[in-house]
């Protein structure tokens, strides 16, 4: 039976490479990938948080996706994307389902911001884009400056990376998690 990955985003400000490179990588490895966004309309991506990039149509929405159907949750970065998801109760419920069921979550760049509002950050060891380090620490996380970091504190696996430069290591860490 094929493994299934769930990607969640808002509909604006998603860092293009942090969405598409892991998504395409996992698909190339035979992983079934579903992209859920806040709304069933175009997801506008960006490059470097500023330059408009390609738009994509998600397969489903955060409010209708069934988190129990997936083996891993992936949250791309993008400052606006992460900040928007922080306020989305459906995103929080998906994250809480994964953590409550000890399923892995992989997050890159600004994505860990969402864990703060989902109340799943305390005592986790993680990395992120450097500008949110203090936010994460103030919420109870322990920040490390590593290309990719895996933490199993609180009995659920969290894989994090800092930026688009870390995507190759991030992709390999996700694949290794799915193979375990």
Explain what you see:
- The protein is α/β, with parallel strands linked by helices.
- The chain has a single domain (4-179), classed as Class I glutamine amidotransferase (GATase) domain (Rossmann fold), CATH 3.40.50.
- It is 31% helix and 26% strand.
- The protein has 6 helices and 12 strands.
- It has a 7-stranded mixed β-sheet with strand order 6-3-1-7-8-12-11, with helices on both faces. It has a 3-stranded mixed β-sheet with strand order 2-4-5. A two-stranded parallel sheet has the order 9-10.
- A hairpin with a 3-residue loop joins β4 and β5.
- α1 (16-28) packs across α6.
- It starts with a strand and ends with a helix.
Summed up:
With 180 residues, the chain is α/β, with parallel strands linked by helices. Helix content is 31%, strand content 26%. The chain has six helices and twelve strands.
- Taken from the alpha-carbon principal axes, the silhouette is globular
User: What is the chain-wise order of helices and strands?
Assistant: EEHEEEEEHHEHEHEEEH
Rounded Rg: 14 Å
Q: Regarding CATH, which class?
A: Alpha Beta
Key structural traits:
180 residues; alpha/beta; Rossmann fold; 7-stranded mixed β-sheet; 3-stranded mixed β-sheet; 6 helices; 12 strands; 26% strand
Topology record:
Layout: E1 4-9, E2 14-15, H1 16-28, E3 32-37, E4 43-47, E5 51-56, E6 60-61, E7 72-75, H2 79-85, H3 89-100, E8 105-108, H4 113-117, E9 125-126, H5 133-138, E10 142-143, E11 148-151, E12 158-161, H6 167-179
Parallel strand pairs: 1-3, 1-7, 2-4, 3-6, 7-8, 8-12, 9-10
Antiparallel strand pairs: 4-5, 11-12
Helix pairs in contact: 1-6
């Amino acid at each position: 039976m094929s493994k299934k990955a769930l990607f969640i985003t808002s509909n604006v400000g998603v860092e293009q490479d942090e969405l598409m490179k892991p998504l395409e990588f996992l698909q190339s490895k035979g992983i079934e990938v579903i992209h859920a966004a806040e709304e069933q309309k175009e997801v506008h991506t960006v490059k470097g948080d500023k330059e408009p990039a390609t738009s994509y149509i998600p397969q489903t929405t955060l409010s209708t996706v069934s988190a129990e159907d997936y083996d891993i949750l992936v949250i791309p970065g993008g400052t606006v994307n992460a900040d928007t998801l922080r306020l989305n109760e459906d995103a929080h419920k998906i994250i809480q389902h994964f953590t409550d069921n000890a399923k892995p979550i992989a997050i890159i760049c600004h994505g860990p911001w969402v864990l703060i509002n989902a109340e799943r950050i305390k005592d986790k060891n993680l990395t992120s884009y450097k500008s949110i380090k203090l936010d994460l620490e103030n919420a109870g996380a322990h920040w490390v400056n590593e290309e990719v970091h895996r933490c199993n504190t609180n009995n659920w696996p969290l894989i994090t990376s800092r930026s688009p430069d870390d995507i190759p290591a991030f992709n390999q860490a996700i694949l290794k998690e799915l193979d375990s």
